[in-house]
Design brief:
Elements: H1 2-21, E1 24-31, E2 44-50, H2 54-69, E3 74-77, H3 95-100, E4 105-121, E5 124-128, E6 146-150, E7 154-168, E8 174-182, H4 188-205
Parallel strand pairs: 2-3, 2-4
Antiparallel strand pairs: 1-8, 4-7, 5-6, 7-8
Helix pairs in contact: 2-4
Length: about 210
């Protein structure tokens, strides 16, 4: 009975943690005052994503491109273009590609992973024999013989964040930048989709898309 109650309590705590944190939001935004009233809506936009893994990069570009398209701009995915020569120091690496594609602006998103959010583990088996604990310890106690180990292993989930910039192709100036965070850690694709939607919605609310 104690083992069952312990497992139920752990599962409930994990569920409460995930439900409390399962949100995607903009944490901070900045808009260049020189671009007030200027929008990329109706024009061509180069969409670029940076991530540690190629799969995440492709998912990000696809979802970000879809969000941009839904708001009236025409997206060109960076991965669909031929590689360009190295840019001078301090110049946006996608600037040449955007100019060749005839894009009016660049939407560049960088994905970053945060600290592990939750550990999803199964029930544990505990073996206890009377006597005092002492001497050697490794997850339990010898002497009194208290040993515990999980059944079925465990899984560590991660939440992602996204730093995004809207870049003017004509001069490389940053028009807008924003930071979004997600904690829907059970579904990476879902996180990226929500980050893209939330970020592009913020661009639209700022009157820039």
């Amino acid at each position: 009975m104690k083992s069952k109650l312990k497992y139920t309590a752990v599962a409930l705590s994990t569920a409460l943690l995930l439900s409390a944190c399962a949100t995607t939001r903009m944490d901070a935004q900045w808009t260049n005052p020189d671009y007030q009233g200027r929008s990329a809506r109706g024009g061509s936009v180069l969409v670029a994503c940076e991530a540690r893994e190629l799969t995440l990069q492709r998912i990000c570009e696809q979802q970000l491109g879809a969000a941009v398209s839904a708001r009236g701009a025409t997206p060109t995915l960076s991965s669909q273009l031929a590689p360009t020569t190295t840019q001078p120091s301090g110049v946006d690496p996608y600037l040449s590609a955007a100019k060749k594609a005839g894009a009016r602006a660049i939407v560049r998103m960088t994905l970053s992973s945060g600290a592990p959010l939750a550990v999803d583990g199964g029930p544990t088996i505990g073996i206890g024999v009377g006597g005092s604990s002492g001497g050697y310890r490794s997850g339990g106690s010898f002497g009194g013989i208290g040993i515990g180990f999980p059944i079925g292993g465990s899984r560590v989930s991660q939440a992602y964040g996204a730093d995004t910039a809207l870049i003017d192709v004509t001069n490389g100036a940053t028009i807008w930048s924003g930071r979004a965070s997600s904690s829907n850690a059970d579904d990476v694709t879902g996180q990226i989709t929500q980050l893209a939607q939330t970020t592009v919605e913020a661009l639209q609310n700022a009157g820039l898309l």
